[in-house]
Inverse folding.
């Protein structure tokens, strides 16, 4: 995979070079993701981006599985599960779980709230407010209401907005590279 090769290469370079290489790699992936939207279903693009966000956000040290919960979109759940379940992030394996409603939410590292479940956003957010959970949504306006990352279509291109204050309140750290790509 491109990121694996880039990350291995980056380990041998000075810090300034590392930042440049990582920035260029992230830009290429996000631009490629946007251009692939014409060739791939949107649920696949969202799944790829959710996975790639994990590379540019730092969670507090924990053990066990790295859990990505999906609420409201069977296709994204199936795609993430088939592509990334069992892969490793640091010392933790990815586990993809499907969540039917807010009452089923347990501890997750990432919680993707699909557009179809956005009507319950405030309830969902309240369930994870005390957790170190990255909330990713797909509906205009949810970035302002506390979503950490919100997908948006701008000029027929998939983009994302990033709520830095909300991310910091979740005890997560986001890389400058990812912030620079957000709107």
């Amino acid at each position: 995979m491109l990121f694996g090769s880039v990350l291995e290469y980056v380990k041998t370079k000075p810090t300034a070079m590392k930042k440049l290489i990582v920035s260029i790699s992230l830009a290429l992936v996000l631009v490629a993701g946007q251009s692939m939207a014409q060739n791939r279903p949107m649920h696949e693009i969202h799944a790829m981006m959710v996975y790639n966000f994990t590379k540019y956000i730092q969670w507090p040290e924990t053990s066990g599985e790295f859990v990505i919960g999906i609420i409201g979109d069977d296709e994204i759940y199936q795609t993430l599960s088939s592509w990334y379940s069992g892969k490793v992030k640091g010392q933790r394996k990815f586990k993809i779980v499907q969540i039917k409603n807010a009452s089923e939410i347990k501890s997750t590292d990432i919680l993707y709230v699909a557009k179809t479940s956005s009507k319950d956003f405030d309830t969902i957010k309240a369930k994870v407010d005390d957790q170190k959970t990255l909330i990713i949504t797909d509906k205009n306006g949810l970035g302002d209401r506390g979503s950490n990352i919100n997908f948006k279509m701008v000029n027929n291109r998939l983009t994302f907005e990033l709520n830095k204050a909300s991310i910091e309140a979740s005890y997560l750290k986001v890389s400058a590279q990812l912030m620079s790509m957000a709107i």
